[in-house]
From TrEMBL:
GO terms for biological process: lipid biosynthetic process; membrane lipid metabolic process. Keywords: Lipid metabolism, Membrane, Oxidoreductase, Transmembrane, Transmembrane helix. Residues 115-243 form the Fatty acid hydroxylase domain. This is Fatty acid hydroxylase domain-containing protein. The chain crosses the membrane at residues 36-55, 67-90, 110-127, 407-425.
Amino acid sequence: MFSAFHDFEYRPGSLQRWIQAAGAPDLKLPDVARKAMPFMLACTVLEFFVSLLLHKKVYYRRQTWSNIAGGAIGFVLSGLFLRGLNVFPYLVIYRFIGLKLVGPVTSNNIWVNIAAFLGFDFTHYWAHRAGHVMNIGWAGHGVHHNSPDLNFTTAFRQGITEPFIACWFYLPVALVSPPDVFFWHRSVNLVFQFFLHTQVIGKLGPLEWIFNTPSHHRVHHARNYGRVNYAGVLIIWDRMFGTFEEERDDKPCLYGIDERQVPLGTHNPLWQQLFHWVPTIKLFLKTHNPMVLITRATGEGMIAPHVSDALTRKDGKEYQKVNNQVFKLPKDGIPCDSSPVSLLDVYVCIQSLALAGPATLAIMRMCGGWNPADTVVAVLHTGGAFTTCGMFLDGTKIGRNYEMARLVLLAATAWFYLAAPYVYWVQAYSVVSIAVCGYVHKLAGLKETKAKEA
């Protein structure tokens, strides 16, 4: 399955190891999720065509882009800069305690693998549950839920800061499982969860009793059901701890984060990462009470799942409503942008998916041989492309300005990490892109004005 991994260096070591962690040259851990990425992307395309055959509206163009952009930022920033949080604490616990308790074991030991599989799935249940019941947990995990649709691209949309909370729940497994076994099962578990994010697969009969299924996970994402179904692979944890709810045919799932304030109003993936952190920090600074961080205390502008939140206090009074405006859902119940394709969409797709997307995959694959400075610059450029393109997709003037500033910065910094022939190509590309950006924004503004006049 994988090679034995017992004589490892558990200390943080160089900056490169913290940036690249499991992908660092001197610390190799199994990562099935990265290897499965091409297969998951292929399944996403397949789901799109299956949904067309079923005449089921599952994909919305701009929302799909938003999911992919959020996933790209999450995979690059969390997968590189924060990956150390998922790795080194576990290594330390195993080195000082686990290794002494269980002794050296081979990676293909059946009992060790059973312990790793059940251990991760069990602790993941509690980490996932904590992500819904604590403000600092929801600040990271809520990114995954603030998408108002559900398809395979929703699975890519992950919170950058979520490892800050989740990683500590997995440490008990380090008492019984070597790191290579644990991280292999962790990756496989997360790949399994990718296939839960779909509306084109119905109920799966007797499997629903034991395993987490797309049906169970649709309920978890639905804002018109309760706070339920936190499982990874085995749904038995939810059945054991009273957090299970079955999907009902007479109650179609509505996705999003709040019945009263459904959309975030922006395609900016960076703001989608911060939308709950900002009011949480404001609430803490206002109250000076650290309990607001580890509970679901609410403040002005804080968005949470409608049914799942405790809407009444202990004294029986209702918490203050969190929204200041009423959002009316369209007839199909999906608050996604269904506007026709425009040059704005084409520009954003070329700049982000066609250029920054492949660059993101290249960074994830080749960063092991780069020095930290080059890795940081590359990540900032790709992350910046998705962020400014998201702002530009909102059709705002400030979005256009940030996108132009990114292109200027791209041309300026090319001198530092590219050879002379390529520098000129990048600068020419930036100049053309700036001109096209201005033209597209002007055209989009004219169309918006005509639509309002009509």
